[in-house]
């Protein structure tokens, strides 16, 4: 009885733990324990069918001398550095245009957000591949205006751009966040600037952009994490080709894990991706301290 009373008393004093228990159990079961197991496997030569025969740092030393892995890391960084700025700038531009009180503007906001819902799906990637294939709609349009067709998916210089365009096309999520940020700017501040003779360009760069900079910073950080883990688009559209020009590190992890069954090496690559993401986000956070305008709270 005393043990039961103690358990009841503990539950009453720590109700918040009970509230988060379903999430905590799901996190431990589907994220925490798999991450721990992959960390352990990364220090072994674990093969799905042959098991483990060796422990050590051989996977990480092999990655440093693996040209395919180093190239995949470089392509992943290049893809991120191009995709994230383009997506953020396009989302900001569309949010600025939609920041108006015209009749029926809600319909346009919904239409512009639709690509963000559809863009990450497999069907959208398949459709994108059909658009840019040799006899696809894009090449047909080029021929209609007198231009020669382009082998978009067969040329290393253009294949990565096809994948990038797909992800830039789904700019809806940063657009929604920045649209909400534009709407939170006090109208009195903008009216005062106009009365002082400030133009639209000056108001945007001196008032609106600094005011929404925390939201831009947050959106870009989310997009950086998403771009570094990109998998669906290059896997479906190009399968990492041509000549490995769209083989991102996530695709390389998939091949080692589920095509060659080298779980140890794939786990090591996954942790390299984790460390790469942590370094990029850390550097971005340091940069944000200088570029982001954080509004100071008034003392109480």
| Biggest sheet details | none
- In N-to-C order, the SSE pattern is HHHHHHHHHHHHHH
Can you count the beta strands?
A: 0
- Principal-axes geometry comes out as globular
Are there runs of 5+ residues with pLDDT below 50, and where?
A: none
Terminal CA distance reads 50 Å
Portion of residues within helices: over 70%
Report the radius of gyration as a whole number of Å: 25 Å
- Number of H- or I-type helical stretches: 14
Write a short abstract of this structure.
With 300 residues, this protein is an all-alpha fold. It has helices at 2-13, 15-41, 58-65, 67-98, 105-118, 122-131, 137-144, 156-169, 172-183, 187-195, 200-228, 232-237, 249-258, 263-291.
Summarize the structure in words:
73% of the residues lie in helices and 0% in strands. The model has no long low-confidence stretch (mean pLDDT 86). The chain has 300 residues and is mainly α. The longest helix has 32 residues.
Fold topology:
Layout: H1 2-13, H2 15-41, H3 58-65, H4 67-98, H5 105-118, H6 122-131, H7 137-144, H8 156-169, H9 172-183, H10 187-195, H11 200-228, H12 232-237, H13 249-258, H14 263-291
Spell out the key features of this protein.
mainly alpha, 14 helices, 73% helix, 300 residues
């Amino acid at each position: 009885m005393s043990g039961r009373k103690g358990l009841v008393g503990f539950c009453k004093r720590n109700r918040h733990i009970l509230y988060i228990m379903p999430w905590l159990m799901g996190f431990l079961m589907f994220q925490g324990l798999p991450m721990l197991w992959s960390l352990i496997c990364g220090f072994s030569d674990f093969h799905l069918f042959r098991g483990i025969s060796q422990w050590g740092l051989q996977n990480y030393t092999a990655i440093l001398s693996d040209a395919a892995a180093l190239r995949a890391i470089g392509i992943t960084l290049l893809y991120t550095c191009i995709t994230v700025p383009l997506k953020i700038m396009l989302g900001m531009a569309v949010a600025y245009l939609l920041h108006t009180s015209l009749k029926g503007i809600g319909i346009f906001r919904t239409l512009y957000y639709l690509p963000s819902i559809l863009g990450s799906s497999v069907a959208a990637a398949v459709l994108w591949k059909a658009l840019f294939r040799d006899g696809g709609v894009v090449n047909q349009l080029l021929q209609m205006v007198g231009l020669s067709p382009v082998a978009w998916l067969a040329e290393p210089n253009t294949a990565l751009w096809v994948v990038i365009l797909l992800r830039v096309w789904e700019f809806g999520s940063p657009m929604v966040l920045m649209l909400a940020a534009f709407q939170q700017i006090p109208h009195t501040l903008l009216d005062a600037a106009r009365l002082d003779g400030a133009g639209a360009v000056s108001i945007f760069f001196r008032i609106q952009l600094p005011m929404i900079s925390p939201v831009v910073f947050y959106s870009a950080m989310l997009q950086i994490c998403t771009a570094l883990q990109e998998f669906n688009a290059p896997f479906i559209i190009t399968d990492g080709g041509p000549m490995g020009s769209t083989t991102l590190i996530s695709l390389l992890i998939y091949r080692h894990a589920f095509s060659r069954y080298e779980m140890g090496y794939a786990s090591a690559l996954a942790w390299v991706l984790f460390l790469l993401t942590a370094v990029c986000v850390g550097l971005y956070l340091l940069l944000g301290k200088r570029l982001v305008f954080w509004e100071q709270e008034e003392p109480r």
